[in-house]
Every structure is written in structure tokens, then in C-alpha cells.
Amino acid sequence: MSQEAFEVVQWARSKGASIPSQIDFVRDESKGICTVCKEDLQGVKIRIPSSIIIGRKDARGIFAPRYDGDNTGLKFLLSFWKSENNVEFGPYLRNLPSQLDSALIWSPDEWQLLRGTNLGNSIKEKLSTIYSEWTTWIKDRGLSNDSLDFDEFDDQQLYQDFLKPASRGQFSSWSSFSAFLWSHLILLSRAFPEYIIDPHCHEGSVILLPLLDLLNHSAHSKVQWYSEEGAFCLEQNDGITKGQELFNNYGAKGNEELLAGYGFVQEDNEFDYVALKIKLPLKTIENILENEPRIKLPTLDDYTTFAFEKSTDKKKDKADASYFENGIRFFINTQNENCLNPLLDLFSYLSKTDVTENWTDLRPRLQGLQSLRAALKLKQDQASILPDELKPSAAIHPYRQYCAGIYRQGQLRVLKHAITSLKQLEKDLFTQHKHQLLNLKKILKDDARFVDEELPNLFQDKDQDEVSFDDTFELLVLWILAKLKNDSFQEKHEWIRKQFKVSINKEQTITEEAELLYSHFFSEQQTTTTKITLEELNDAYNFVLNNSFTRSASSSSETILVQSA
Ligand SMILES: C[S@@+](CC[C@H](N)C(=O)[O-])C[C@H]1O[C@@H](n2cnc3c(N)ncnc32)[C@H](O)[C@@H]1O
């Protein structure tokens, strides 16, 4: 048995904890302590009596919780006990890891390994939240009132003064920020939900379970947690063979959560997800909440499985737009084929041109799909920029470098999967609705008159070599103009004429873009027979804009007209 574990195991047993004697505790370079079976075992049960469970019952006086699910006092209590060498829980406290690897306390050089990823972009925000939890608590108790604003620290100072000491559990005062950060990370990586032993407690309330918290995580371990006369029990009924590790199961966690909270990753993690945060004006959110019940705006609790991350903020109701004022968070993964649907619904809604259009119509659906794909592509590009100038150095821990690499790979895998799914969905929609879609390629193939006569005629006063078209959007505008001017829509394109007629019934203000296009093509036009007015071009321009979507590929984009239902 590993020397460090020996003391805590002996102590826990002496207090009534039970764990099969065939289980050994060994030290692993990267995982820390591991529980390994010395013999084949069936029906493993570990029982932790209430006397050694650390939780609200111990957090009295200034450490007492102020509201349901408040764990802040417990964090301070933990660092207080550690600094005073608490006798009662000494063996437990001494056995806590001497080095934490959560990405929150990596060095600035190591943070570079996460550049361009969601985790890399959110670390400072996460630390800032913990910092304000700390300042609020100590100021409320008059322990200090001179703490600095978090934004005043530069990364090096933050690391040297707080993160490095916190990662090693070394601090001079129990009430310092490094002490608090250490406790926070200990709870984050080792705590269990209290509701298992007290169903009436708040679901965000947590406890520490000496001995049981020596079990590492496997997402495939089938374990049961339950309460037995106040004790916390874990049972694993799958059977474990000699030499195998006995695992707990921390829940369906992706590498982002594992790396930020626990400081490790799992290769090919099936629970990997990528978070997309969409920030919208409050008015838009209000409209969705009031008028679009089919558009689901998820809340964090819809995704969170573990008590420690459950929101304890009961002030905000999710039916209230302000709940989403800092952004709506969507999580996408490779496991749930439907995870893109709520996102696509929202992007379709945002692609609606006016009140007469419904977000479920084909055009906004296709435009929404393009915008969502572009947003995912941008994330993919950002996460693909590898920090190549970072050479292995003393400032970069090889294990952390490995973790960052696996995490990044997982993020890219999820994004690639989502982009491929959207491409497939687009392909299906194209096949299903091919008679409602018209692109320039089809027009040029079928409408020889436009190519040979009508288009050149629009520019008969110009040197033909000088006329050039920037994109398919412009050409579609010119096609509409030519067809209307010459009254020459082919039978198969009759729907365009009809749709156009409906569209010009609405009031049209001259847009800046239409004006620019007009001056580019027609301002010097002299011939009266083909003269195009700014109003005509504006109508055609707005028609194409409101009745098409633009499909973007890596180097080009294509505008496609859509027949409304
Ligand atoms: C609840 S503790 C488990 C006991 C821990 N090994 C120890 O030495 O105290 C959680 C920590 O164990 C490590 N850990 C747990 N599961 C792991 C895994 N599957 N791979 C690598 N490290 C793991 C991480 O450092 C994590 O923060």
C-alpha cells in the first residue's frame, strides 16, 4: 500500500469505514493514488460513516452556509483546518494531493497550450468568479477590505502570487485567495452531492468523503451511491478481476470539464462537448420566450449532472429574458444526433427577414444552417491554430501538455462531426426541395436568351470588357432586372415573377447597397431603351436579398433563390 494512503485508510477504518481488505492503494505517476484489486472481487461495497463525512454539519459559526446550497463556508473551513493542522481530520488532510493539475492553475506558458479553445478563452473568467466569491465572503466578515480588483493582476503576478501556491496547497493564511482557490479545487475534484445522504438538502450542497474520494474516474464504471443509516455507500456489482482498478464514476463528463475541474482528460472521450455561447439583444430573447415556444433556450441545469455545478442562483427565472443576458449556452457533442436542432432553430429564427416569414420556412432554415455552419467553422479554425512556437520547456509540464493536446483533439472532433452533420442536412434539404431552389448555374444552362442578348444589352453603352461581376448575388439581381424589363420569364421560372410581385407590394426604401451597385453598373447609362432606374434595381436587389440564401464554401459563396411555400 502506498505510504500516503496507508495513514488515511487506517484512520478511516478505525472510525468505522469499511472497504474490502482485498483492495490495495498504489501510486500512479499521473493519476495519483489508485485503488487496485489484489484478487478477483464481486459486489464491492465501500461504506463511509457519517462521523467522517465532512459537510455542512462541520461548517459552523462563520463557516456556516448562508443559504441553501452555499458551499463557500465549507471551502474556507477546509483551508482553515489545513492551516491549523486539524487533529480530527489530520490523516485525511495530509493525504490530499500535493499537486493539483486543474487548468485553472496552470502557468501562463501552459495556458498557451489551450489558446483558441473554449477552455483557454474562459479560464480568466472562471478565476474571476472564484475571486469575487472569495472577496465577498472575507469582506462580509470584516477579514479584509483591501483586496484588489481581479483585472488588475497580470498573468505572471496571478500565477506567482496565487495559482502556483494554490496548485501545491501552500499558503500562509487560511483566508488568503490561494488558500480559497486550493479548497475550491479540492471540492471541485473530490466532493460528492449531499442529497444522497440527505434528500431534503439543496441539490447544490456538497460533502467530502474520506477514503471514497481515493477512487479515480471511469465513465464506464457501473457504481451505485446510496445512503444507509446516515452512511454514504458505494457499490460496484460488475466484478473486478485481480490487478484491475476499482473506479468510481464521476458522471458523463467531457474533457473540458475534467481538465478544468479535475486536471485530467480521457482519450477518445465519448462525452466530449463543445459549448457555443450565443449573445442576443434582450428584446430578441423576450420575443422568443413570448412568441416562439418551439424554440428551446437551454439553461445550464439542462446539461449539468453533478451537484457541484448546479446553479444555486434562484433569483432568476429561466422564463425571464435576463436569465440569458450573458449569453445562451448550447452544448454540442458527437453522441446526440439531435443536439444541433435547438441551435439550428435559433439560427433559423435569427435569419428571418421580416414578420411575414416563419423561421420554419425553407429559406430561413437554409440561411440559418449556413450561419450556424460558419459559426462552427470559425470555432474550428480558432481551435486548429496550434501553439507551434511553444517548445517543450521547464515552464511546461509534459502531463499538462499531453492533457491540452487530447482536449484540443476532442474539441476538433466534435466540431468536425457537427459540420459534417450540417453538410449532410443541407444535402438532404437540397434533394428534398430541389424544385424550390434556383441557382445561377441552372439559369445559365436554361436561359440562353439572358446570356446571349439580355445581359449584354443591359451594358450596351459600356465597353463589354470593363463589365465584371463580383458574385452570383449581383448576377441574380441583373437576371431579375433583365427578365422584368423584357417580360421574358420562362415557364419554369414563373414563380419568380409571382414572388417578385408580392414582394414589391411592400414599401421599399432605397438601400445603400443598392445605390452602390447602381452606381457601379448603371449611373453613366445613356440609352433610353434599356435604361434601368435606381428604384428598379433597388426592388430587384431587395427581392434577391429576401428570397435567397447565400451558401459559403471555403473560397467562394453562392446565392440561391428559394421559392416560398
Ligand atoms: C477524487 S480524486 C481521486 C484520487 C486521487 N487519485 C488522489 O490521489 O487523491 C480525483 C483526482 O484523481 C485524479 N484522477 C481521477 N481519475 C483519473 C483518471 N481516470 N485519469 C487520471 N487521473 C485521474 C485526478 O487528479 C483527479 O483530480
From TrEMBL:
Record domain SET: where: 21-251
A cellular component annotation (GO) from this entry: nucleus
Protein name: SET domain-containing protein
SUPFAM superfamilies, per database record: SET domain
Gene source species: Zygosaccharomyces mellis
A GO MF term: protein-lysine N-methyltransferase activity
